[in-house]
Amino acid sequence: MRTVLVTGGSSGIGRAAVARFATAGDRVWFTYRSGRDRAERIVAEHAAAGAEVVAFPFEQGDWVSHQRLAAELPGPVDVLVNNAAVGSKTVESQVDGEAEQAAAFFRVNSLGPLWLAQQVLPDMLHRGGGVVVNVASVGGGIATFPGFHVADGMSKAALTYLTRHLAAELAHEPVRVFAVCPGAVDTEMLRASTFDGLSPEARDALLARLPGGRLIRPDEVAELIHWLAQPAAALLHGAVIDASMGLGAHPGLLTGPAAERSAVR
User: Fold this and answer.
1) CATH of the domain at 240
2) Of 31, 192, 198, 207, which has the most beta carbons under 10 Å away?
3) pTM listed for this prediction
């Protein structure tokens, strides 16, 4: 049985990834920043289905919290899914001030995944195998989306660089590294950053402009993450995957003249 660690596993893509790996029979550990009751409900739901799922409180990008998590994990990690992140709106609920928010993007979205990878990689190499999947974003990881926080895109670009850098270092090692760059996924984070401030008519118009005329489901991204953790994905070692249904190839669908957006802050 493999052990999978999913950060930010209590909602959105992370929650879907926890479910996908648990359903496949993996032991799953996930982290959450807040919402202990929700995390406990997720654990109980999977336990009722016979899966082994454990939740850990975690403040990604805080060195003390990283050290605490390392001490609390019951054993080695076979698959690391670096999913936890802050977005253009969710960062506002965590820190105040322009400078502090910009720093938070890099601390949570870039530095935290680096520390986690450095934490698990030595043991993966010692045991002869492992997988790291970094969940970045089509914004910054693949394409440029003016109107969203510039530090948000920069932090995701840094995460895709981390993916390529680790993949190069591990080219002759049995550990595979990938980045997944989702597009417009139906999550609380996307709704807060993009949809909540729009009128119903504007929301419908925005959805119509997206590839396929719809949002991506979290379970669709989780399926891709799960597949990357399988041996068949070895050929894609180091790949930064555009998982946006084509939004990365045509970012103007979201940010063109018809899009309602604010100025870059």
Assistant:
1) 3.40.50.720
2) 31
3) 0.92
